Amino acid sequence: MSFGKALSFNKGLIILLKSFKNALDKLFVIGILKEMLTFLFFCKTSISLPEKFLKTIEDFQITLKKVEELSAEEKPLGILVLGGDGTLLKAVPYAYQFDLPVIGVNMGKFGFLTEITLEELALALEKFLEGKVFLEERRLLKVTYEDKEEVVLNEGAILKGPFGKSITLNLKIDGEDFIEVYGDGLIVSTPTGSTAYNISAGGPVVHPKVRAFIITPICSFKINHRPFVIPEESILEVRLKEGEGEVHLLLDGRTNWFIEKEKRIIFTTAERPLKIVSSPTKSYFQILKEKFSW
């Protein structure tokens, strides 16, 4: 069942449930509804589930399941994240694999991606189940290195190792030699990730609806090397030309690959975007202003 059809079906069941006066009939429909209202659940490990959260989940009769508890036949309605941005980033590969929308509830320190507060959760779930919620489509990067491939929401960062030796990276865009970056590394970011590592390295804030990638050198020895933006349909190829010791490719802060000289790292747009349930009460610009104290 597609996401849209599932939402319509759930809404119909809720209306149908209200019309039943017979207890047995109502229990039968509740059984179907509970089976349909299954969410894949990701939670920050260091927190206890708040009473308000548990009460909201109970009120909506939602079943929460971890990845390992999900059977091959099950198709969750979405992914529910309780935590901060790091917790949401862990859910991204599964959201992409199963093509599921993500509801991020902020219980972290910063929480820019997890837009929804505990107080907003009930309203967000109500609108979500009625099919009235606004789903933001966030572009994803597909990163390929040798036989490995992964999608990221924020960025892929190529970083020098712990010995402190600068590295030289060769960049090609659409097969054309572009520049060599000599310094501490390079960040390739999505617009969503522009407010993460990219902004700390001096890169620009780019609205998530802009179809582009941001390339930001990290502490380049050439002071005229500045962050720049390329169209999202571009194919970016990066090779490590010079570098001693370990050189890392860090993906969304959760996956770390060691890279070798002259082996290609390819950055392209993923086949489909990530769908995130936006805050029902705040706009992107309100959240941006609030989180960065502008």
TrEMBL record:
Report the top EC class in one word: transferase
Family stated for the protein in its record = Belongs to the NAD kinase family.
Its protein name is NAD kinase
Residues the record marks as active site: D85 (proton acceptor)
Query: What cellular-component terms does GO give this entry?
Result: cytoplasm
Cofactor(s) required for function per UniProt: a divalent metal cation
A Pfam family this chain is assigned to = NAD_kinase
Compartmental location: Cytoplasm
The organism's taxonomic lineage, starting at the top: Bacteria, Pseudomonadati, Thermodesulfobacteriota, Thermodesulfobacteria, Thermodesulfobacteriales
**What PANTHER family would the database entry show?**
NAD KINASE
User: EC number(s) of the enzyme?
Assistant: 2.7.1.23
Identify the keywords attached in UniProt to this record, alphabetized: ATP-binding, Cytoplasm, Kinase, NAD, NADP, Nucleotide-binding, Transferase
Residues that hold NAD(+) according to the record: D85, G86, K90, N154, E155, K165, D184, T195, A196, Y197, N198, I199, S200
Q: Name one GO biological process term.
A: NAD+ metabolic process
Q: Which reaction does it catalyse?
A: NAD(+) + ATP = ADP + NADP(+) + H(+)
Q: What does this protein do?
A: Involved in the regulation of the intracellular balance of NAD and NADP, and is a key enzyme in the biosynthesis of NADP. Catalyzes specifically the phosphorylation on 2'-hydroxyl of the adenosine moiety of NAD to yield NADP.
Where is it mostly found? cytoplasm
**GO MF, any single term:** NAD+ kinase activity
